[in-house]
């Protein structure tokens, strides 16, 4: 190989390396339009989007202002569009250019320029003739001193949408967000990404090229990126994610007869996946809905773990469990048992047989009873199996009322769910039940049961009715929940569309159309959607339109109409672009309100659409605040171009800021507009007013985004009725769809009839009259409750809820309490009694069909004594993990551990005297050494140290925190005796919260005091003067109430080494290596010569 060839090879390699290292090497090519020209000063063409089925083109010739003579420019069209030769000549003849078309069958045009010594700059359009079934290209070429070309393409756009559905996901599992990739099927390249959250199960890819550069239809597919325990199936862009689950089960041999907490373990990680609590008599267990895979999609191998019980040993084999006596401890029996109280529901107790009254209550149990927890009588007296009888018997002394309750601190012993924690979601729930209520299954939970599955699904609604026990014996809280659906209301609706027709609506937006045309396209779809249920004989929805700018433009086809064609004709074909083209939003609001005032429809709606800030307003004459003007004159302020009032005047008006009532300054046109909206809303609270800002996420007319949002929010009648769009071309249709759902309620003025069950009494409080304290109403939005009333007829024992107005995702829940009358002569123990009669919903005043709710049932059990108290720290926060021992007069003990809510429950107790002691405190707290005397009276009263505790006087035991400290000593590197002042440190806890920031003093020390035990991170944030910052975080654990000392060293600035190196090392390294190889090769060749 010659030296020249080698040098050529070297040059090529350098070029390749340079190209590879160039940032442009990895960038993808985009098919979107980019004008191409060989000389823009001579010839240039650019597409400006599509409008009204025409492609707009911008042509530039001779931008350099050279002298052109006898020049012919060829213009050729590709794709399904054409140009009117006559219109093009009309446009260009005045500029000295003649256009000819040699062959009418071919889309080739010749632009003949006789003489031109200035630039030619024109805009024209081509007409789409193939219904957007191709891209549209325009090419230019000419010989002007050289061959010059220019071209551009308008790419037709499309969109792709789909839904995501999760199936078989357990209630306690939150579905993860899903990453969806959009793929070009031909090239298998990723075009776009979308992230779909579990609370918004739909996605849309907008602005996709419909055809490639060769006018071939692009095929797209979606590809979800799934991990974890889900199987994915994609059909027609809809994605189904099915939760993959497994189960474990095993047999139990439990000699201890005590409850077991089975922990289900992931073998690979040792983490606890789930827990199962079984009672002492259970011989088999099963756990469903365990995830099949972990978050990375790897299969989970499960194991179980059982903690040894005092005096017994636990062994497991293939998920089977054996609890046997621990022979090593058999000679030292303990008379106590420890169970962890974690707010678990109380046990279901079988029906009690009658017994003669005795002076003391007697608790007796059998192995056949289905008891979930060991009773205190069993634990303390350790009744032998020979003394067990067939049933649980309670013999009450005659002086104790049968309805006595024995609980403290209003503890929700049976797991009563809070009011807002009712079943269902704000979107359509899943799964649902369809069919006869009487055919539904029961979900039994001891003494009460609910129908399942819920909700019950009807055409108009989803309906729940579920009961949970309260802390009062035999009392139940009922949640009656009603959710609307997306369907056309049975009531009449009048809608006024107040649309901005100002000059700014002429802006070309992302889809190539003017904002006015794009808005009309989406509003027309909205009109079609909300009027679709109208018929020739029955008009449910009518619409009228206000076109406003500086003026309200004359009406077209005045009055409300239910005919979509007539409604659409009310819109002007274009926006105003003259002296009347400002934005007088206040005038538009007044006109829209006047139209709605004439409406007799059941529902009245105004939708205001504007793309900018108000630039005109009426002069205020009376006000209590800048946004609370109560009256106006007909004098107009503002010049139509500026949100703010300023000093510039015209010959007919001034636009200065002004004062109302001498002290309220009005500085912009938004303040009167907001005030006008408030006047309308106060006068007509029955108006539903929506506001939509079109592309208002950038400043406009000297108004900030915050200014415009403030106007939009105050126009809307509810906060959630105000919308803004960043890109109205893609977002407006979705916003209007949301409004359509709100307008089209499936439940309109609905009525719920809810009779109380024959064996129950409604809790009406001490006055025995229904008022708002006797029930609770909640809703997905509190505004839904404004029209709702609740009444009670004591003669028929019937609740009625009136005025329900619900659309898709909107719900109202009524919560009230009933009590089973166990003293009724007709009461039969252990018999199920329905809590209500047939409960129905009448969806609207026009409805014929009544929609039935499921009805819960309950039965009674014998009362029991419970002692519950709260374990808290000195800030009254609940403490988990404190162990307490309760000892009776005979020396028998019970042990309980405080739950995550700080509650400690001792239940199934006989009356008598006990001592309560804390055996161990939670980690990081000081144990309470006091011994408390607890006395339970026969009437259920509980006194602790002779103080009566009730729901209003709750007993609690307080632990004080163990506190430690951290001392930081700052010194010079290599010399611990040279201490450094001026170093600033911050200390954060394990949650990342800042605890304190301190600076070392002259002794080089700081001390962080009174720190709760736990993990901390120490970080230097400012170095001492003349020293380098040591910014490496230091992890510190405070384990007890002692001081932890940390020494931190700093290097002097004089120890800093100069920085070396630079950018581009890869390139120069490779280049140097190549030169060395050439040098060695050349030397060898010379030597051989």
Automatic annotation (TrEMBL):
Q: List the biased-composition ranges (Basic and acidic residues).
A: 323-332
- List the SMART domains: VWA
Q: What Pfam families does UniProt report for this protein, alphabetically?
A: Cna_B (PF05738), GBS104-like_Ig (PF21426), SpaA (PF17802), VWA (PF00092)
CDD domains the record matches: vWFA
Q: What are the alphabetically sorted keywords of the record? A: Membrane, Secreted, Signal, Transmembrane, Transmembrane helix
- Signal sequence: where? 1-28
Per the database entry, which stretches of residues form a coiled coil? none
Q: Where is this region: Disordered?
A: 323-367
List residues traversing the bilayer. Answer: 1061-1081
Query: Which residue intervals define the domain VWFA in the entry?
Result: 494-739
Family named by the database record: Belongs to the serine-aspartate repeat-containing protein (SDr) family.
Q: Which NCBIfam families match?
A: LPXTG_anchor
Q: What is this protein called?
A: VWA domain-containing protein
């Amino acid at each position: 190989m010659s030296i020249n060839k080698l040098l050529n090879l070297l040059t090529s390699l350098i070029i390749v390396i340079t190209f590879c290292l160039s940032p442009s090497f990895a960038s993808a090519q985009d098919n979107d339009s980019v004008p191409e020209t060989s000389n823009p000063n001579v010839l240039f063409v650019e597409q400006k989007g599509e409008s009204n089925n025409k492609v707009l083109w911008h042509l530039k010739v001779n931008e350099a202002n050279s002298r052109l003579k006898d020049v012919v420019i060829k213009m050729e069209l590709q794709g399904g569009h054409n140009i009117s030769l006559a219109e093009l000549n009309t446009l260009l003849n005045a500029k000295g250019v003649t256009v000819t078309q040699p062959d009418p069958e071919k889309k080739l045009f010749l632009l003949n320029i006789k003489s031109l010594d200035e630039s030619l700059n024109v805009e024209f359009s081509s007409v789409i003739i193939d219904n957007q079934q191709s891209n549209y290209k325009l090419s230019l070429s000419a010989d002007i001193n050289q061959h010059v070309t220019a071209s551009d393409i308008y790419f037709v756009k499309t969109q792709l949408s789909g839904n995501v559905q999760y199936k078989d996901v357990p209630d306690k599992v939150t579905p993860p967000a899903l990453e969806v990739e959009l793929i070009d099927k031909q090239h298998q390249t990723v075009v776009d990404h979308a992230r779909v959250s579990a609370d918004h199960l739909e996605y849309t890819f907008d602005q996709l090229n419909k055809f490639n550069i060769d006018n071939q239809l692009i095929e797209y597919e979606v590809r979800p990126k799934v991990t974890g325990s889900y199987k994915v199936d994609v059909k027609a862009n809809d994605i189904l994610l099915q939760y993959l689950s497994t189960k474990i089960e095993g047999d139990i041999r439990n000699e201890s007869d005590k409850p077991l907490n089975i922990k289900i373990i992931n073998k690979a990680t040792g983490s606890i996946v789930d827990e199962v609590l079984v009672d002492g008599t259970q011989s088999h267990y099963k756990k469903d809905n365990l995830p099949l895979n972990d978050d990375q999609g790897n299969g989970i191998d499960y194991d179980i773990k059982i903690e040894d019980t005092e005096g017994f040993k636990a062994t497991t084999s293939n998920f089977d469990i054996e609890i046997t006596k621990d022979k090593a401890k058999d000679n030292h029996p303990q008379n106590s048992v420890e169970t962890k109280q974690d707010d678990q529901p109380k046990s279901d107790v079988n029906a009690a047989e009658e017994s003669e009254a005795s002076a003391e209550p007697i608790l007796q149990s059998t192995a056949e009873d289905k008891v979930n927890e060991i009773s205190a009588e069993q634990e303390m007296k350790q009744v032998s199996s020979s003394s067990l009888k067939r049933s649980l018997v309670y013999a009450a002394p005659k002086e104790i009322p049968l309805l006595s309750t024995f609980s403290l601190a209003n503890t929700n012993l049976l797991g009563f769910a809070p009011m807002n924690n009712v079943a269902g979601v704000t979107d359509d729930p899943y799964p649902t039940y369809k069919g006869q209520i009487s055919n539904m299954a029961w979900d039994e939970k001891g003494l009460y049961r609910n129908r399942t599955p819920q909700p019950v699904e009807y055409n108009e609604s989803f309906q729940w009715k579920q009961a949970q026990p309260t802390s009062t014996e035999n009392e139940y809280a009922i949640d009656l929940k009603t959710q609307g659906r997306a369907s056309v209301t049975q009531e009449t609706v009048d809608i006024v569309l107040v649309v901005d027709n100002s000059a700014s609506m002429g802006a070309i937006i992302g889809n190539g159309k003017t904002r006015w045309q794009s808005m009309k396209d989406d509003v027309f779809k909205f009109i079609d959607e909300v009027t679709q249920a109208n018929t020739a004989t029955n008009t449910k929805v009518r619409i009228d339109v206000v076109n406003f700018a500086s003026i309200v433009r004359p009406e077209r086809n005045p009055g409300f109409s239910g005919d979509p064609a007539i409604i659409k004709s009310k819109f002007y074909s274009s926006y105003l672009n003259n002296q009347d083209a400002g934005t007088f939003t206040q005038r538009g609001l007044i006109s829209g309100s006047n139209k709605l005032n004439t409406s007799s429809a059941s529902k009245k709606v105004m939708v205001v659409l504007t793309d900018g800030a108000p630039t005109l307003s009426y002069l205020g004459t009376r006000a209590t605040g800048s946004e609370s003007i109560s009256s106006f004159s007909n004098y107009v302020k503002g010049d139509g171009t500026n949100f703010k009032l300023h000093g510039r005047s015209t010959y007919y008006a001034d636009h200065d800021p002004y004062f109302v009532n001498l002290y309220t300054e009005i500085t912009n046109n938004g303040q009167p507009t907001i005030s006008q909206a408030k006047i309308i809303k106060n006068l007509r609270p029955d108006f539903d007013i929506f506001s939509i800002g079109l592309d208002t996420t950038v400043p406009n007319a000297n108004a900030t985004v915050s200014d415009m949002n403030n106007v939009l929010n105050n126009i809307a009648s509810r906060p959630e009725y105000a919308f803004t769009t960043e890109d109205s071309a893609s977002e407006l249709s979705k916003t209007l769809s949301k409004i359509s759902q709100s307008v089209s309620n499936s439940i309109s003025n609905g009525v719920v009839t809810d009779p109380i069950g024959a064996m129950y009494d409604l809790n009406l409080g001490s006055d025995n009259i229904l008022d708002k304290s006797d029930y609770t109403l909640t809703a997905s939005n509190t505004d839904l409750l404004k029209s709702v009333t609740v009444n009670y007829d004591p003669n028929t024992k019937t609740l009625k809820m009136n005025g329900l107005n619900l659309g898709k995702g909107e719900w109202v829940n009524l919560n009230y309490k009933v009590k089973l009358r166990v003293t009724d002569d007709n009461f039969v123990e252990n018999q199920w009694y329905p809590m209500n009669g047939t409960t129905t919903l009448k969806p609207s005043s026009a409805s014929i069909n009544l929609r039935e709710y499921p009805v819960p049932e309950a039965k009674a059990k014998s009362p029991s004594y419970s002692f519950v108290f709260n374990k808290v720290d000195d800030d009254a926060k609940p403490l988990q993990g404190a162990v307490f021992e309760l000892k009776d007069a005979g020396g028998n003990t019970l042990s309980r551990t405080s739950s995550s809510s700080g509650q400690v429950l001792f239940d199934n107790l006989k009356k008598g005297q006990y001592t309560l002691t804390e055996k161990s405190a939670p980690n990081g707290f000081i144990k309470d050494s006091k011994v408390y005397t607890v006395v339970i009276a026969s009437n259920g009263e509980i006194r602790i140290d002779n103080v009566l505790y009730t729901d209003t006087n709750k007993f609690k035991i307080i632990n004080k925190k163990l506190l430690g400290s951290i001392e930081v000593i700052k010194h010079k590197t290599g010399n611990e005796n040279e201490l450094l002042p001026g170093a600033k440190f911050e200390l954060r806890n394990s949650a990342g919260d800042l605890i304190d920031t301190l600076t070392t003093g002259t002794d080089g020390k700081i001390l962080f005091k009174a720190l709760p035990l736990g993990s901390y991170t120490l970080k230097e944030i400012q170095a001492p003067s003349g020293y380098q910052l040591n910014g490496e975080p230091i992890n510190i654990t405070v384990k007890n109430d002692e001081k932890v000392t940390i020494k931190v060293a700093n290097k002097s600035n004089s120890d800093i080494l100069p920085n070396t190196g630079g950018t581009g090392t890869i390139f120069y390294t490779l280049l140097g290596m190549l030169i060395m190889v050439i040098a060695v090769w050349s030397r060898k060749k010379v030597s051989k010569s």
